[in-house]
Amino acid sequence: MSVDSKILANNKFELVTVKEDEIVEFVRNVQGTEHVLFLWTDNSKKNQFVSELFNKESSKGNKGFVSLQPYPDKEVENTVYEQFYNKHGKEFIPKAVDKVTIAVAANKTDSATRYAFEDDTWLMDRGQDKEVIETEEKLGPTVDEKLSLFCFNNVSKLNESKLNRMIPAHGYVITDKPLRLYKFKNLK
Predict the structure, then answer these.
(1) pLDDT band, very low/low/confident/very high, at 1 (cuts 50, 70, 90)
(2) N vs C: which end of the chain shows fewer Cβ within 10 Å?
(3) Which residue segments constitute the domains of the chain, with CATH numbers given?
(4) What DSSP letter does each residue of 148-163 carry, written as one string?
């Protein structure tokens, strides 16, 4: 399943680029305050962009990744969904928000903390749809100036209703099929 461009247009998003090199450059140079939704269907494309986000040359601040499997880069604080869920259960999201807040507060560099969630549909599969969507909506299109937040989600697990709530909660949306970068029209 791909994302219909009408859903993005109806949510006031405009196309920025279709060029892969420009999208890679955007991800490598993501700034503080940017809240990005990456809607993926292709696991290898998602993995490519996770690697670009944590590229050693472009990401100098603290880095954190909540992932489906252990992440091999030791410079990235890694939390595995299943282990964290087994420990915290329904408190997963508040505890994850705490982890991000602590990482941002501990960052003493001039670069924003980069934090990513590999696939929150994993949580939705465990009955946390409401919690995930409401947290995204509370965050809104921009986040703290010392944070760049990436939300990767398997679009095949999101129906149109969920997409219509998730998309406007972000300032940018990247789709992998077709590969596109969109920006919320009202974003400064």
Answers:
(1) low
(2) C
(3) 5-184 (3.40.50.300)
(4) EEEEEEEGGG--HHHH
CA gap 91, 38 in Å, rounded: 24
pLDDT of residue 84 exceeding 80, the answer is yes
**Which are the contacts of 157, defined by CB distance < 8 A and separation ≥ 6?**
121, 124, 125
Rg over alpha carbons for the chain, rounded to the nearest Å, is: 15
Which position has the token pair 């890679």?
24
Tokens of 53: 């986000």
- SS3 call for 65: strand
**Cα distance between residue 172 and residue 182, in whole Å:** 6
The span from the first CA to the last CA of the chain, in angstroms, equals 30
Return the DSSP state at 1: -
pTM assigned to the model: 0.94
Question: What φ, ψ does residue 10 adopt, rounded to 5°?
Answer: -65, -25
